[in-house]
Amino acid sequence: MFVFDTLSLVFVALILLGVLPNLFYSSGYLPHIERKGYYQLHYFAFIASMLGVVVSANALVFLFFWELMSLSSWQLILTEVEDKSTIKAARFYFLMTHFGFVFLMLFFFIVGNGNLGLDFSAMHLIASEFAYPGLLFLFLLLGFLSKAGAVPLHVWLPYAHPAAPSPISALMSGVMLKVAIYGIFRFLLDVLYPWPLEWGILILSIGALSSLIGVLYALSEHDIKALLANHSIENIGIILIGFGMGMIFDSLHLEVLSTFAFIAALFHTFNHMSFKSLLFMSAGAVLHQTHTKNMEKYGGLIKAMPLTAFTFLIAAISISALPPSNGFLSEWMIFQSLLDSSHLTIISLKLAIPFAIFSLAMTGGLAIACFVKAYGITFLGLHRSTNAKHAKEVNFLMKSGMILMTAVVLSLMLFTPFYIQWFDKVFVSLGRASVYAKIFPDGIWNMHSIGINGGMVSPLVLLISLIVITALMLFAYKLFGVKTRLHKTWACGYTTSAKTQYSATGFAGPIRRFFDWLYKPNEHFHKQTIAEHNTKFTSAHYEVHIQPLFERVFYQSMVKLTNLISYWVYRLAHFGQTRYAAMIFNIMLLVLFSYRLFTHEFSWALFIFELLIMMTSTKILIIGDKK
Amino acid sequence: MILYLLTIVLLILIAPILLSYIKATKMVLFFKRPVPLLQGYRNFSKLFSKETIISEETSAITRYAPFLVLSPLLVTMFFLPPIVGGAYYVSFVDAFTITGLISLSTFFLMLLGLDSASAFGGMGSSRESFISALVEPAMILTIFSVSLMADNLGIGQAGVNLAEHFPKEHMASYLFAGISFFILLMAENGRIPVDNTETHLELTMVHEAMILDLTGVYLAIIETASSIKFVIFASLFASLFMPFGLDFIAPIAFVIFVLKLFFVATLVAVFEVNTAKLRIFKIPNLLGLAIVFAFLSLITFYVLGD
Question: Based on the domain organization, do A205 and A186 belong to the same domain?
Fold first, then answer.
């Protein structure tokens, strides 16, 4: 019923690391929730169900906890219903998560041979005998990636995560997405093991696409929680890039490189849990004080909320993959495994992987831009609204939650070798090559890349040298006793006020303009001109709204298609009785013909003949004369 | 070890001279009276003796960011390829770490721009974030390609390997990487087609806009940081794309390396004189060129085979 192998335990640890600081934060947040009992019940059910998913050993238990996780988080989104958009977001989430659930169930029905009580360990045999492993892979992808929020199944994420109360956003984005990653690890490595090369390439491409799409939409957001939710898409993409590289190396029988890439993916999973939870907690603290999610209403909060600003800065450095943070280390590992592609023998693959390198590097650059925007607009400058002016530091419990989470981030940075050794054990227990001794061949100081002539990084040395040099300079500055004066500085003849600062929309302006073809923004620009002069105006209002491409193209065209189908069904429903009978006749014909087609030998002549019969009978009996 | 430390000191000392030299060369080409080569030091000492005025709107970021802008660059100095054969060098640090450190410095510079609540700071940060986001992929791909030719991902080792074994069989991809890296050198250091550090016109400002509010020691630190950034890029260009002259005895090798740096600076000055500042929205075209050259370099390397 339950399994406690190393993979499960690692994910149990991940959930606990994410949950424990969150407990403090949540209890600090509790006084602001009206339906306390309701919230607490679902909160603990949510945590328990996530733990249940990662330790369950058969499909029935897995699906039970999976569904409990979906339902409790769905109810948690609905804890604080302020407007209709929350209900809409919850409904969207409900739909998408069950969309994935259906495919998971199909997957389990096939690999369990109809027996849902079968242990995962017994599934491998059935899966390997199944004629269409590609179908199983597709079901897995649809099931787990719709939960993890990878492109193109990510559309619910920027709606659902911001709608939930802040502790829940932190849990959903930081921890729940990782449970889906656990599913991918568990079922791809354990159940569907020998995989063709194409699967790895597919995962790699999904990852590369998700990372770019996620960060681009994050940049255009000015709702701080939606911005962070979009960054979750990006980071899931980065994890999938690592995982995809692992699969590619594995199918080419490069075991050591593949374990390295898997460890990189797992390490990034941990890192994303830590800094994303921290970011959501700090953003939640800001939101809690200013009562708005709109970044354009923030500003100057570093003075009122120094601790929140500090924790946000740590997390922002880490998520932007700047050295020597933990986010940098895992992205470095993923980069190294991408660079190891130069030793592959398949030339087309070698030529294709630089595009993944490009998208990962571009993601890094854009993430920096995005977090400069998020941090700078939120915490620096002058306050842009009265709420931001009266903001205070949050209560002790919420603060301690954030401090604990910062400790988790720092521990991932400082104790990297320890964590990697542990991740290594996971893959050894799954029957892979051990690479810990190759990553850290000479003690814990230097982290090596596995490939031939690979690079190396010394996280602690980097950290220490940065700290020492900065401290020396600060010390010298103090020693010289430079006179410092606070005064008004020259602002080119204007007085500095909250209105003259750059806004979040303005900050992302150049990038938005460059990616105009992707964003296709809705711009609202009203100005009160003076005497019809186009350039002179008393007041102006500018707003940009961006509807994600996938939502616009993919989902809305789906809606249109459904409408079209339902229109035809509606027309059918108003046919006369004779036509109903004719339709039944036609369906019978279809069934008979297709039965013959599938069971007997296929011949084109017969197929065309039957097709003609079908078309004729449809035309004569159902459609009839045009009126 | 002594040569290693000496190199770092030399590079730090030569950094302000190089920037003044570029300025002087440009002035000569414009038939103006050139600034003296020690102008950088003069500015530094003048700024250092000044009182520091901090804008009233700023927070703790302004007090710490200048140091955090400089220190990652100083750390990077330790990872550069050697300029004398046989000297100690850090062999293993790869492109991703070096770009990361430079990005860390830029990150704090951008925060500094936003801290003073002036429209100029925000403008500078916004533009800088746009440019550096596009520079990053080109930089990583270019250095990756060079390190493939040098057979080592570590930058320091790559420099040594290139000096020992010049990649004659990969001249095409080597050249492409060189072009790409030169464009990046111009872009990252705020040279003319991308940014103009000499004017204070809001249309052209990127780097200057971010530091408009700084004076005194803080400004001196940031100026030092930008000259050090230039020297990092110039010496990377010199070691990776002009890999010769390491075999001589130390003083001659030093002289050759300094000459190479001045050659790069002259190249930059001539390039700057002959181009106009690009509009901000045309910069992606230039950087796109760098990305395309980086890809071309990798592709020709792979297709022509090892």
Answer: no
- Residue A96 touches partner B, C-beta closer than 8 Å: no
Whether A588 has a pLDDT exceeding 60, the answer reads yes
Angle at the Cα of B94 from the Cα atoms of B88 and B96, rounded to 5 degrees: 145
Per-residue confidence band for A626, with pLDDT thresholds at 50, 70 and 90 = low
Last residue of a domain, which of A140, A163, A194?
A: A194
Tokens coding A161: 């995560």
Residue A13 lies in a domain: yes
Q: pLDDT tier at A627 (50, 70, 90 boundaries)?
A: low
Domains identified in chain A, total number: 4
A252 in the same domain as A134: no
Q: Convert the pLDDT of each residue in B161-207 to its tens digit.
A: 998 888 888 899 999 999 999 999 999 998 888 888 777 777 778 88
Distance from CA of A343 to the nearest CA of B (A): 10
Structure tokens of A87?
A: 């209900």
pLDDT tens per residue, range A182-207: 999 999 988 888 889 999 999 999 99
Domain that includes residue A176, residue range: 1-194
Q: Determine if residue A624 is left, alpha or beta; phi over 0 gives left, psi from -120 to 50 gives alpha, anything else beta.
A: left
Task: For residue A484, tell me if it sits in a domain.
Answer: no
A50 and A178 within one domain: yes
- Shared domain for A205 and A350, answered yes or no, is yes
Judged by a CB distance cut-off of 8 A, whether residue A571 touches chain B is: no
Q: Which of residues 115-154 of B touch A (CB under 8 A)?
A: 115-123, 125-127, 129-130, 132-137, 139-141, 144, 148, 151-154
Q: How confident is the model at residue A625 (pLDDT cuts 50, 70, 90)?
A: low
ipTM > 0.90 for the complex: yes
Same-domain check for residues A161 and A236:
no
Q: Are residues A575 and A510 in the same domain?
A: no
Q: Say if residue A295 is in the same domain as residue A153.
A: no
A467 domain-assigned: no
Residue B306 confidence (pLDDT): 62
A365:B103 CB<8 A: yes
Q: Using CA atoms, how far apart are residues A245 and A451, in angstroms rounded to an integer? A: 13
Report the relative pairing of strands A456-457 and A484-487 from DSSP bridges.
Answer: unpaired
Regarding whether A287 and A315 lie in a shared domain, the answer is yes
Q: Which of B159, B153, B212, B174 is nearest to B298 (CA)?
A: B174
